[in-house]
Structure formats: structure tokens, C-alpha cells
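Let's practice the habit of predicting before peeking. Look at the sequence and jot down your guess about where helices and strands might fall. Then scroll down.
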Amino acid sequence: MTLVDLSRRMLAVSRELNPTCEHVQGDMRSVRLGRRFDAVFVHDAIDYMTAEKDLADAITTTLEHCGPGGLVLLAPDHATETFASSTDHGGSDAPDGGGATCSEWSWDPDPADTTIRTRYSFVLRDRDCSIDVASETHTTGLFSREVAASARRRRLRRNLDPRAPSRR
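Done guessing? Here is the structure:
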């Protein structure tokens, strides 16, 4: 399995969790690995594509890396057709006395654009029972299923068009 991420820090975490996998630093909109795979899976990282061109470029990258008869699976957290403001929470305690809780709040401040916001708040308890609180807000893309399907169809038509530039 080959894992790609833009962030060196995320790749370091992934190497700890997935030591038998190949790790490559790259941007999902432009990375070219020079080989094809039976399956290409992009989970919630696709959410960080906030412009339609970025989404189309990421879809092109997945299709470029998918071999004949292969499978592409894009799994964004939200789509325009089903998005609703929401909250969620969770947490756990560690055996050493540490623990963490997280709350999440997602909303669409401007339904006319292609982004939403999610605010994460964390309460972290160290094993000495000291507490730290942190929060961050993420802006992510929100597209209709048709926008994603249209980008995929444009790319596939380009692959089938004999007048299209040859692929390297």
C-alpha cells in the first residue's frame, strides 16, 4: 500500500501507525507516482479542496493512478445535497489517567460559496491530571455530487478523445 500526504508531520505519524506501507510526500492535486494501482482511495482529505478546480485536479490525480478495471473511491465527509449543520463529540480515558475529549461543530456560514467551517475543541488531561484546552477551525470544501461526477466525466472523456494530448 502507498500512502500520500502533503504534511511531513502527518507522514511521520502514519509511518508509526503503518510501518509496512510506502509513504510519499505529495499534493493530491498534482502528485504523479509513475505507476498505477488496483484501487485509489481518498478519504476525508478530499474535504480540503475548497475550489472546484482543486477538486477536479484531485480527481484527475486519482484517475491517473488507477489501473485498467481499477476502483477509485472518494469519501468526503459532506456533500451539498446532504449537508446540515451538526455537532458531535467523543473522548476516552487512558489507563495511565490521561484522557481527551473532543467536540465538533460544523456549519455553513455562506450557503452561496463552496466551503463550510468546522470548529474542533479539545480538552486534554495529562496523567498528572493537569488540563490543557485547545481549539481550531477548519475551512473545507462543500460540493454537490454532480460537480464531482462532472469532473470525473470530463477527465474520462479526455482519456478517450483521440485528439487529446498524449499522457506520459
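How did you do? The chain has a mean pLDDT of 90.
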